[in-house]
Amino acid sequence: MLNIFKKKSVPIVVDKELVSTVGSSTMNLFDDGLTFNDDNISIDTYDKISRHYQVRFSLAIIQYTLQQIDWFIQSDNKDVKEVVSASIENVWNRLIGSISKSFKHGYSASVKVFKVSEINGKKYITYKKIKDLDPSDCTVIIDKDGNFDGFWYRKGTKYEKKVPPMYSFWYVTDIENGNMYGNSLLKNVYKPWWYSEKIHTFANRYYERFGEPLVVGRSPSGVKVKNSDGTVGDANDVMNTLIEGLRNHSSASLPSDRDPETKKYLYDLKFLESQMRGFDFETYLSRLDNEISRGLFTPELMYKGSGGSFALGSVQVQTFYINLMGIMDNIKDYIDLYIIPQIVDYNFDGNNKAKFEYQPLTVDDVKNIFEIINILVKNGDIMPDLSQLEVRSGFKFKKVAKKDKPVVDKNVKSSKSNSKIKENNSEASFYKSEIEKFNKLLNDI
Hints:
This protein is of the alpha+beta class. The chain is built from eleven helices and twelve strands.
């Protein structure tokens, strides 16, 4: 009986690789040796991500919008309000710049520098600047009770320096589980950034390779050809000469010899061209840009040249403002805890308090505020401050006295509209016209 389950004896071959690598992908590897790893992203990698054109644009939009936010200080003491306002105003842009570093690295470390300023004839201790440091050089210090206790600057080097809490400003973005190093906003865009860098490399290689296509020449092997000068050369050498001439943008003349059997030309030239076009790269790169923009919550219509509907743009801007207000709420908490109290304690006695507040960013809230202002002005309950109006608009206004105002004849009617006679000039009507000009200016801006 035949035993079909009997194993055939095969000799073992040693030192022989049955499978060899014939190719490998570089999609998960950069030229500098950086490998794809979205679970453990270093500060150096975050710096590389931040230099990407789309990431840089989105971060700049967030930072510069925060710098332009209208803020104010609330306090029952007028002096406290003025001193705290002047102190923060001195460092506002640098403070936001330092905080914006945490958007890239998850945290930012800064040193508070003080000075003596004269305000309303009195001397006060105020902020001179917020000196931002490289986050990679700073290590947070936590005491035994889990509280912030300053940070080390360049720990373990000859430049090592401990910055005490009173001079420290350590800001954290998206803190979780007490992690004082936070979470970078760029972690959301690691994948589209990686593929954007790789596809840009592939696209450039493609444009370089097929911008001037490779010339392929065909000639019979082993055949001798007599040149025009009478010399005899190999057919392959002649073809190489023709190809070089084509690269130098000269013309080429091929022999008309044919194969006696197939009747095809023995000499042939053609271009090796790709079947795909550059549009494929552009479409995919545009998609990756959109993913980066969405990952950082910046409106796509801000950088797209194709435009879009007004409704879509309004929704995107509104969503962007909501995100910024969330960031501003976090900034407000830090300023109330780590910026304002020191200025108040150093300059005032007693239980003086001050709070940081900012104007709402939503489009509807801004419209509602201006509608309320318009109603109050029209009713004569308030009048605009011309000095502040000049500063905000950039125009110089001159108040017109009653005796200088033109008098309107009540018997004169409009020949076109037969409307009512214009109201007699009065203080209220003058400011009404001024506020209308101001609203037009705001709409133009």
